[in-house]
Amino acid sequence: MATIQPIAGELEPHPDVALVERVRGGDVSAYDELVRKYERQIFRISQHITQNREDAEDVMQDAFLKAYEKLEQFQGNSKFYTWLVRIAVNESLMRLRKRRTGKMVSIDEDVETEEGSVPRDLADWAPDPEQNYTQAEMGRILEKTIKGLPTGFRVVFELRDVQGLSTEDTAEALGLSVPAVKSRLLRARLQLRERLSRYFRRGKSRKQHPAKEPSAAKEPSAAKELGAEK
Amino acid sequence: MTCTEFLALLDDLIDDSVTPQMRSDLQQHLSCCDHCVVTLNTTRKTIEIYRSHEIYDLPTGLRERLHAAIMARCKKGC
What we know:
Helices cover 55% and strands 0% of the residues of chain A. By secondary structure, chain A is mostly helical. In chain A, helix 1 (15-24) packs across helix 2, helix 2 crosses helix 6 and helix 4 (80-99) crosses helix 7 (167-174). Chain B has a single domain (3-75), classed as Orthogonal Bundle (Arc Repressor Mutant, subunit A). Chain B is built from five helices and no strands.
């Protein structure tokens, strides 16, 4: 049975290394720990890609089951979570292919958006803009706002900024190059900022709603497998 | 430094991966450009807001059910 080597350059092996070793030794409870540790994150990634709660639930289950089945193939050259995200992304894309016959989604296509990357709304925000909205309203605003971004932008933003993965780990998990991750992250941040400005700019009353939501960026029309633009 | 040049380094500044010289150049630009100050602050706030709100959270009941289903199948050998 292959043993997992600590990732080069790290003084301490990642805590997941020991858990994976235990699972390989037949200890299912160690896998239980890994599932508990990462199920929320995997669910969120799946939801960002599939945009459908039922699909995201199925993907989450399938991704963890597939990772369990394939654990012997995990070499330990990457982090367990990075490897798991890659499985979840592929499962999510497969789910979309089953659901949609014509319109396909890929992570790697560099989508040109109508908004571009130049800030246009330069009004400052209220000091604490969240105070103007209830928790439920905030949830709706944030969901609606991020849904308008291309899939690849949403997932890069989720992994880098929400989950705190490094640029390198994000690139590995998504099968993208580091420059491609950086480019998507900058545009995702700027476009989210631009869209949120409509709600949070100084002097904005919570009763006022943006006159018109920007139309969602066009998703790629043809499926491209992971791995391009490397 | 122009606003376009500032924007190209915005992520590096937010992620704190700039050299001292670059930081000094960026600070100098910020001291005379209100628009870039707003862009920087509101981009930081955007990230902070998304970090503090889990928009696709799993309710505990559902999480437990999914978790139990995964583990039951793993114990059977999937």
